[in-house]
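so my prof wants the structure for this chain in the tokens format not the other one, which i didnt know existed until like an hour ago. anyway here's the sequence
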Amino acid sequence: GQIISSGLEKVVTGNATIYIYDGDDSTVEPVIAFPCNVGEDGVAVDFKGLSVGNYMIIVDFDSADGYYAGQATTYATVKQAKSSVVIKPIEQVAYGNNVTIEYTVLNATTIKINVATEDLKPVCYITFDANVSEYDGSLVLPNLAAGEYFVVVENDGNDNYTFSSTSIEFTVNKAETTMQTEITPDIKVGDE
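here's what i got, hopefully its the right format
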């Protein structure tokens, strides 16, 4: 938030209006015009939803307690918020069992999931728009051949959120072979 105080030796209370302009041109309509009451401790105002960019902030204070009206100007920059991707550890499974990839994306925009073999042959590629602050997802892959695999989960980012990605490897083990052998006790040479 932006703290507004009088800067005078005596505590001044009264009314103020906070104007937020996109860029540094105060001749255009403000993005926000917010009337507020300034108390003994000033006022703290938290503006949410501003896009990435530079803003000029003007505070107009009405005259009060024998003081003239005043105006103060400052500048602020809103930067991209960070996004992050986490893939939970993937259990090793045997051939014939499903592989489950569980992941969390913070400040999700467009999520891309790429699964490939260790020699980078594509197995699965998915992309979708999430556009939420936290996305918990899972991808189930059936019938993968035995071998080593590589997974990359990416969050594309946009004007408001940064790009992020992470990767993990997992193994599909060969399945155990089950055999039964039956021996006839009285086999003679030449018998089939």
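also thought this was worth mentioning. The CA atoms of residues 157 and 163 lie 4 Å apart.
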